[in-house]
Amino acid sequence: MSDPQEASTASSPPQRRRPTIYDIAERLSLNPSTVSRALNKPGRINSETEARVRAVAQELGFRVNRAARALPTGTTGTYGLILPDITNPVHFALIRGVEEVTRSRGFTLTISESEGSAATEKEAITSLQNAVDGLLVVASRLAPEVLVELAAITPIVASNSASDALPSVIPDIAPGLEQAILHLKELGHRSIAYLGLSGADASQINRGKWDLLFDLATAQGLSIVEIPITAPTVDGGAESLRRIVASGTTAVFAYNDLVAHGVLRAARTANVRVPDDFSLIGFDDIFSAELAVPALTTLRVPLREIGSTAMSILLDPASNRTPSQQTLPIEFIVRESTSSAPSR
Amino acid sequence: MSDPQEASTASSPPQRRRPTIYDIAERLSLNPSTVSRALNKPGRINSETEARVRAVAQELGFRVNRAARALPTGTTGTYGLILPDITNPVHFALIRGVEEVTRSRGFTLTISESEGSAATEKEAITSLQNAVDGLLVVASRLAPEVLVELAAITPIVASNSASDALPSVIPDIAPGLEQAILHLKELGHRSIAYLGLSGADASQINRGKWDLLFDLATAQGLSIVEIPITAPTVDGGAESLRRIVASGTTAVFAYNDLVAHGVLRAARTANVRVPDDFSLIGFDDIFSAELAVPALTTLRVPLREIGSTAMSILLDPASNRTPSQQTLPIEFIVRESTSSAPSR
DNA sequence: CTGTTAGCGCTTTCAT
DNA sequence: ATGAAAGCGCTAACAG
Fold it and tell me: What residues form DSSP beta bridges with A309?
């Protein structure tokens, strides 16, 4: 390595050390604390000096050092979003909603994954808690007690998983599901299936769907069965086609749109016709749902609103520590994958 | 508000102030600096005291305060990813690649959006630079000079946009495009169209595609036209159907798979048959490409590898300041949306 | 309205 | 191998 001095003499941008409030204070023969006030408490200072401070700050390209600010204040100005899988299209709209409110309020967002595992989720949370002012945890797999305990460190709001000890915002699936069941009944369907995730890592949401569907179906005199899928993915859905056909049901609810896409794909290669041979209803309404052939009838979850609502709660110190249960209704969207029950 | 003392006596987790290295030093009658060393420079200290320190740290649930560490060291341990649109499926695989290497190395990632605008991008960069050790900028719209200038503050690596003054990793589109053109020629196509983004905000990548396609097509004696789209989206693609049909070309390259999806959707409602009436080739190979009907023939960009490679460069102090041009080849994937040219 | 002072929690010479 | 002390850049009392 050559003399560093040499480097800064080279043709590339001179760019020395980042300016600090001391630099600007010195230029103006002011005290650093005055500069700090000028920059952060507009109005609480002589407006002329404030203007001069701002001018110099601008000129020097000053930007506060966030770490330095975080130390005395104890706040970082960044919030964390933890979800099972960043790249799952199911979360897009939610991410968008979260990102929007976070950014519009001038905070920055960091995103981390839990991989759908409780252990990784806990690790992600504790690791992030040292760098954020609050956490939004989506579809948590953690036991409520541990989530609550973690929330003692840094506010946590839960989304897509209920908790009566934390602020949480979840979809209200009852109205949409009810409509869907009625829709199916009107079309003459008598027996339906639910393609659900089973096993220990199954999310709360999954249980809720099945339980409600079960009640709704039986209340309407429809028979219902659960067909387990191995994963909430396209492939998981595709694998289940054989069991769907074997079940003899005429209408199936998929765990989510990804699974429904898989069913569609498998049906197409197996020459099973949807909705002629059986009707299919997805869940979430991800962007590709309307692109599918046939376009997916689905239950739209207001993910974007869920995200923005949850983040608004998190950003509000008055509400981010108080248990609450916001609930946003899902909506039934009829497209092409449902039709009259086949005559048997 | 009641006496805070009272609160910590309540039934909810007592959870006092986060423990610091002072707390653990005190417990062990050690100096904080020793604790710091024990935790950060394994081996450079008496192994027995190191063990005791670790034990107490564990017991207290100690976690370093990142801001406090960032101050003296000047590094934060977090890196930033800036891309036009988080929720664009085109970026999924890239995000995954980036996330993987970042996390596997123990760093944390923060993601921000540029909204495809140069101004927002610059704002996002400068804002993040105060909180990260390096930035990965995807599909930059910024002029090379300004990017370079910003890189003086914090290392920047560019991805999906070339720069000869920055480390960058981009797809090598030549081989795949060549294959695709040959494929079309063999199928008897004589005239092709490119659905491209025009206007000032058009990315570098777009220009590259068109230029290369142009050269390749003319070299093969095929006629080629550019059909402008208003946006690189499903709707943008759908809108272009009329012009595609009017153009009389028999094969079209879409700017990306989203656009191709739009074309497919519009074609379906207009009773235009793909690939019977014209062949369609997408770009990127997003997850829904194979789900489309017909399944999309497309050019797969190794986004995940691009992401992981770019992040590896960024994380390596030996390479994140040295201009370089990594290039990863795209791959031509034949599915169902291309077939013989219609006889005219 | 502005200057002084102390300190956030950690790392890092410099001593010992 | 460990201790002492200073300092990173900023904020927040407390004075004046």
Answer: none
Percent above pLDDT 70 for chain B: 93
pTM score of the predicted model: 0.87
Protein residue closest to D13, using CA and C1': A33
Domain architecture of chain A: domains with CATH: 4-63 (1.10.260.40), 78-170+303-329 (3.40.50.2300), 172-302 (3.40.50.2300)
Contacts of B127 in chain A (CB under 8 A): 63, 108
Condensed to tens digits (0 to 9), the pLDDT of residues A139-181 reads: 998 999 999 999 999 999 999 888 889 999 999 999 999 999 9
pLDDT digits 0-9 by tens, B262-273: 999 999 999 999
Q: Do residues B275 and B323 touch, judged by C-beta distance below 8 A?
A: no
Q: What residues approach strand D to within 7 A at the CB?
A: A 17-18, 20-22, 32-33, 36, 39-40, 62, 64-65, 68-69, 71-73; B 29-34, 37, 44-46, 49-50, 71-72
Contact B18 A153 (CB under 8 A): yes
Residue of chain B whose Cα is closest to the Cα of A70 = B67
Which amino acid residue lies closest to nucleotide D2, measuring CA to C1'? B34
* B65 to chain A: closest CA residue: A130
Determine the Cα–Cα distance for residues A130 and A126; give it in Å rounded to an integer. Answer: 7
